[in-house]
Amino acid sequence: GENVEQHPSTLSVQEGDSAVIKCTYSDSASNYFPWYKQELGKRPQLIIDIRSNVGEKKDQRIAVTLNKTAKHFSLHITETQPEDSAVYFCGSGGYNKLIFGAGTRLAVHP
Amino acid sequence: DAGVTQSPTHLIKTRGQQVTLRCSPKSGHDTVSWYQQALGQGPQFIFQYYEEEERQRGNFPDRFSGHQFPNYSSELNVNALLLGDSALYLCASSLVSGVTYNEQFFGPGTRLTVL
Fold first, then answer.
1. Do A101 and B109 touch (CB under 8 A)?
2. Residue of A4, A49, A93 with shortest CB distance to B103
């Protein structure tokens, strides 16, 4: 069945460093790839998304890259700040279904 | 705009019972998706409702069923509850125009505990 693998499961960085989270998907029909941030006890919130006709997208300190041939996409956070600490989920799918990875717990230490 | 709302916030049931969870989508949205999020895991897709019909379903048994009303709100029903059904149930709404995909907005979730 459809599957999304996400790595690493935990990531610890120093404030100001960069963080990279990688995801691999199995469904070649997927054309939409969102990233959500979930803080403890709160709902997931979209931080950036990319569609299959685009290879890279950037929004301030956050960027996402997509390699459709290899079926993998990555989230890049630069100049990390303590408030970036949360669980991040990647998603893969289309207009009628989204499959999420298991999540990456990011800890940014001052 | 209150965004996506869900009720109840918390629920405790015993094995074998039935439960109904409710979701009101963000204003202007026409599609509701339901997810199960076990502790420490990512949201698992249960199904999606559009135009009052189940449009897509994930790998969940028939004990999980749903409904969408003309005002786009939705219910998730789970019959014959098992201990393993304990989880946070999230609904997410979106506006789907044809096959164009737009952002899913999540609700705060309903925490279901099965004893």
1. no
2. A49
Res. B98: pLDDT tops 70: no
Q: List CB contacts (< 8 A) between A42 and chain B.
A: 108
A contacts of B32 (beta carbons < 8 Å): none
All residue ranges of chain A with pLDDT < 50 are none
Average confidence score pLDDT of chain B: 93
Q: What is the pLDDT of residues A72-95, one digit of tens each?
A: 999 999 999 999 999 999 999 987
A26 to chain B: which residues are within 8 Å by CB? Answer: none
**Do residue B104 and residue A46 have CB atoms under 8 angstroms apart?**
yes
Any chain A CB within 8 A of the CB of B11? no
Arithmetic mean of pLDDT, B55-76:
96
Q: What is the 3-state secondary structure (H, E, C) of chain B?
A: CCCCEEECCEEEECCCCCEEEEEECCCCCCEEEEEEECCCCCCEEEEEEECCEEEEECCCCCCEEEEECCCCCEEEEECCCCHHHCEEEEEEEECCECCECCCCEECCCEEEEEC
Specify the pairing of strand B64-68 against strand B74-78: antiparallel
Q: Cβ separation of B108 and A94 shorter than 8 Å?
A: no
